[in-house]
């Protein structure tokens, strides 16, 4: 297993092509419960500089949890992510 973070190209604000903000980290509680994970990356900015970054990913358990607890009227059931 390779422990080296992979490189993700980002804009000058640290946002990747899919709209993920590489400056954010998941809160401790969702990580502890297994609902989210923090994936360390190297963010490559337009000027070529590399900086440590992070991608927050929702696990299948987290997706199921949010489906149960988030009211339908405040989430987008069609999905926009």
Keywords:
27% strand, elongated, 3-stranded mixed beta sheet, 2 helices, 81 residues, alpha+beta
Task: Describe this protein's structure.
The chain is an alpha+beta fold and 81 residues long. It has one domain (6-74). The chain is 19% helix and 27% strand. A three-stranded mixed β-sheet has the order 1-2-3. Strand 1 (6-9), helix 1 and strand 2 form a beta-alpha-beta unit.
Brief overview, please?
By secondary structure, the chain is of the alpha+beta class. It has helices at residues 28-32, 60-69, and strands at residues 6-9, 36-44, 50-58. A three-stranded mixed sheet has the order 1-2-3.
Question: Which SSEs are present, and which pair or pack?
Answer:
Elements: E1 6-9, H1 28-32, E2 36-44, E3 50-58, H2 60-69
Parallel strand pairs: 1-2
Antiparallel strand pairs: 2-3
Shape verdict: elongated
Structural class: alpha+beta
Tell me which oligomeric state these chains represent.
Answer: single chain
The total beta strand count reads 3
pLDDT averaged over residues: 89
Helix-strand sequence: EHEEH
Indicate the proportion of strand residues: 25-35%
Main beta-sheet annotation:
3 strands, mixed
**Rg, please?**
15 Å
Instruction: Trace the largest sheet across and list its strands.
Output: 1-2-3
Number of helices: 2
């Amino acid at each position: 297993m390779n422990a080296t973070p992979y490189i993700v190209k980002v804009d000058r604000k640290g946002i990747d092509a899919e709209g993920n903000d590489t400056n954010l980290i998941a809160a401790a509680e969702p990580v502890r419960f297994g609902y989210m994970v923090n994936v360390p990356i190297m963010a490559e900015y337009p000027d070529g500089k590399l900086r440590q970054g992070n991608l927050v990913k929702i696990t299948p358990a987290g997706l199921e949890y949010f489906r149960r607890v988030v009211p339908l009227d405040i989430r987008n059931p069609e999905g926009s992510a």
